[in-house]
Amino acid sequence: MNPADYDAWYSTPRGRWIGETEYALAARLLAAQPGDSLLDVGCGTGWFTRRAAADGLVATGLDPNADWLDYARAHISPALNWVEGDARALPFADAGFDRVLSIAALCFVDDERRAVAEAVRVARRRFAIGWLNRDSLLYWQKGRGGGSGAYRGARWHSAGEVRALFSGLPVRKLKLRSAIFLPSATRTARCLERAIPGALPWGGLLLATGEKA
Q: What 3-state class would DSSP assign to 99?
């Protein structure tokens, strides 16, 4: 998938609903204030980065793909900061950002444990890291057999596997929440999304949040 097509998907009714639902969950759990600094690890074309900036955060997007970052620079406000880099070796100081965000990006990174440790290292206060959930309807639709479309090659995890990635790291109050229980984005799916508790671990996005210890 090229960056233009990927970014355009977020302008479709389904893509916009999924993106806004995932961002709303992450934003609520990050509890950031306007002016806080935020790093978006694996930002791609920057959809979540610019969404955070729209909430008044000082946002930086990091991605290893130079073409996707070029797209972000060309199509999004130049006030945002875009950095080419590896999630496994973030080019930032310890506790360099108030908040760290990553949505369904580390599941494409070799050595996820190392990437998680790096995200925790550069976080000063809170982090929200999302994975694709193997115990979800989305997995049965898009993840089996190596995945399809934008999900091809991704690793899908259970809640227990996500928790294990944080074992031994300096974090506290680690919790898992999920979203996108019915990925069809129909009117019924949207209504049910508002009614289903995020503590149930069956949504397509499995989000791990916590505080830096």
A: strand
Measured CA distances, 151 to 85, 144, 147 (Å): 21, 10, 5
Q: Which positions ≥6 away from 11 have C-beta within 8 Å?
A: none
State in Å, rounded, how far the first CA of the chain is from the last one: 38
Write out the E strands in the chain.
Answer: 37-41, 58-63, 81-84, 97-103, 123-133, 156-157, 171-179, 205-212
- For residue range 43-77, list pLDDT tens digits in order: 999 999 999 999 999 999 999 999 999 999 887 76
Segment 72-102, tens digit of pLDDT:
988 776 668 999 999 999 999 999 999 999 9
Q: What is the pLDDT of residues 115-165, one digit of tens each?
A: 999 999 999 999 999 999 999 999 999 999 998 888 999 999 999 999 999
- The residue type found at 145 is G
Q: What's the token pair of residue 184?
A: 């069809």
What are residue 39's phi and psi, to 5 degrees?
-110, 125
97 forms beta bridges with: 123
Q: Which of 133, 87, 91, 130 is nearest to 109 (CA)?
A: 87
Enumerate residues 6+ apart whose C-beta is below 8 A from 181.
Answer: 136, 137, 189, 192, 193, 196, 200, 202, 203, 204
pTM for this entry: 0.95
The structural domains of the chain, ordered by start, are: 3-212 (3.40.50.150)
